[in-house]
Write a structure and sequence with these properties.
With 271 residues, this protein is mainly beta. It contains 2 helices and 21 strands. The protein is flat and about 60 Å long.
């Protein structure tokens, strides 16, 4: 009986290796069999009026979302719908399965990508890339699964979520909440607005740029990586370690929370 356990323990890794090899082989076959080199595209455009302080909400499946500030009170949307397939016909069929659903009112614009199921293997892939211009003070929420998110020069509240993709924000001055799973986050703030900043990722680094004059209370956490806030007048409070940092900038103020699991955190200043 004593010899059975070592033999069993040796068999388990071997069986596991065979299982992994089988899975990889099947996945490899799928990759070879699924040739999506053909593409069909269509451009979808809309313009909506939006009341001051209104909301813009975009929910995507596969594809990036970019949002910039407009110079008036209108929301301008350009969406590139893309169908992919092994043949031109398959790509056109994939494109036809994409729908952008609209829910529009004076105070809220909501867009959602919907894709009809193909009903069979090898029916192609779909993607939608959104490019928006919104009033500076609009409240913006953008969500995608496989794609990057970029926002620029927004003054209102921003919520950005993705699963596989990076999040970038430039010249922001409202409340910012950004989260991703596989991707980095790079946010540049012109002001730390009411509600503060919350940034979170799992596999990726985080860089946050704040005005040197900003007053903020900062909490940074990670598992694997390092935290660097040496570029700001940072006053440490509480226990300090490689994995956590708490403190204030210019006496404290709006809360700034930054977290990652695998990646470094850099909090830096700008004039």
């Amino acid at each position: 009986m004593r010899n059975l356990r070592p033999q069993m323990s040796r068999r388990r890794p071997a069986r596991l290796a065979l299982l992994i090899a089988a899975v990889v082989a099947v996945a490899g076959c799928d990759l070879v069999m699924t040739d999506l080199s053909a593409q069909a595209t269509d451009q979808w455009t809309r313009t909506y009026p939006l009341a001051a302080g209104g909301r813009v909400d975009v929910r995507n499946v596969n594809g990036r979302i970019e949002v910039q500030r407009s110079d008036d009170d209108r929301v301008e949307v350009r969406a590139e719908k893309i169908g992919k397939g092994a043949t031109d016909e398959a790509a056109r069929q994939a494109l036809a399965r994409i729908e952008i659903a609209e829910q529009v009112s004076e105070n809220e614009i909501r867009l959602e990508t919907k894709v009809e199921r193909s009903g069979g293997f090898g029916m192609g892939g779909t993607e939608v890339q959104y490019y928006l211009r919104v009033p500076a003070g609009a409240k913006v929420r953008v969500v995608t699964t496989n794609g990057a998110v970029k926002a620029e020069a927004l003054q209102g509240e921003l919520t950005a979520e993705t699963t596989n993709g990076s999040i970038t924000g430039l010249h922001l001055s409202g409340r910012v909440t950004a989260s991703t799973t596989n991707g980095g986050i790079d946010i540049d703030m012109d002001e730390v607005g009411s509600g503060g900043v919350s940034l979170e990722t799992t596999n990726g680094g985080v860089t946050l740029t704040l005005p040197r004059r900003a007053a903020a209370t900062v909490s940074a956490r990670l598992a694997n990586g390092r935290i660097d806030a040496s570029d700001l007048p940072f006053e440490i409070s509480g226990e300090v370690s490689r994995r956590r940092l708490d403190g204030t900038i210019n006496g404290g103020g709006e809360r700034v929370r930054v977290e990652t699991t695998n990646g470094s955190i850099t909090i830096r200043g700008k004039s």
